[in-house]
Design brief:
Blueprint lengths: L1 E4 L4 H7 L7 E2 L13 H22 L8 E12 L2 E3 L5 H11 L3 E14 L2 E15 L4 H8 L21 E5 L2 H5 L3 H10 L7
Parallel strand pairs: 1-2, 1-3
Antiparallel strand pairs: 3-4, 3-5, 5-6, 6-7
């Protein structure tokens, strides 16, 4: 079975190695659009768009007798006070996000979409995980210093729990790896339930 990760995230790549020894990386090029109804549905919709875009391009470039393939896409958001926080566009945006998270709890949602290609057919399996994160009160100086580093700018909510920002995390409820970007156990159990780990 061929495994394709539809993400350029180095954190997701590292975490997926906890399930599969080897896989290819092919990133999505589609323009993502999703209507917000709930945080869980929103991240699933975005993950599905990424995974399906890669699956379609892979299938188009492969012969009809291509080997069985799994394409795995994921998307992570921070949800706080009814607002979706994605990746910051600039320093001012990052600082505003961090101020909004300071001294409060928020939730991190990751949606995962699995596209299974086999015998010319395509099936979809989606899941999500949610983790509650508690952040200490941040001073303006701490926010300014953190946004001078490259750490906030490729991460939802403008922080990485595994990096420098860990000093400001009071605690979490739920899956730590979900906050990093991939709910490893949830994905593993889903693949196992679907009998998609038989080759590994």
């Amino acid at each position: 079975m061929k495994i394709i990760l539809a993400s350029a995230s180095p954190r997701r790549r590292e975490l997926l190695h906890n399930i599969f020894d080897s896989f290819d990386i092919l990133t999505s090029t589609c323009e993502e659009h999703a209507t917000f109804e709930t945080p869980s549905q929103y991240v699933i919709d975005l993950a599905l768009q990424k995974a399906d875009d890669v699956a379609v391009r892979y299938a188009d470039n492969s012969c009809q007798n291509a080997e069985e393939t799994l394409v795995i896409g994921a998307d992570t958001i921070v949800y706080s006070d009814g607002c979706v926080l994605g990746k910051p566009s600039d320093k001012a945006c990052a600082q505003a996000m961090l101020r909004s998270l300071s001294g409060k709890d928020h939730h991190v949602y990751t949606g995962v979409s699995i596209v299974h290609l086999k015998d010319g057919r395509k099936s979809f399996h989606n899941l999500f995980a949610c983790t509650k994160v508690s952040v200490a009160t941040l001073s303006d100086e701490e926010i300014s210093a953190y946004t001078e580093t490259p750490d906030p700018y490729d991460k939802a909510g403008s922080y990485g729990i595994q990096g420098y920002f860990s000093r400001h995390i009071l605690g979490i409820e739920g899956d730590y790896f979900n906050v990093v970007g991939l709910p490893v156990n949830r994905l593993y159990e889903t693949l196992k339930d679907l009998n998609l780990l038989h080759s590994f």
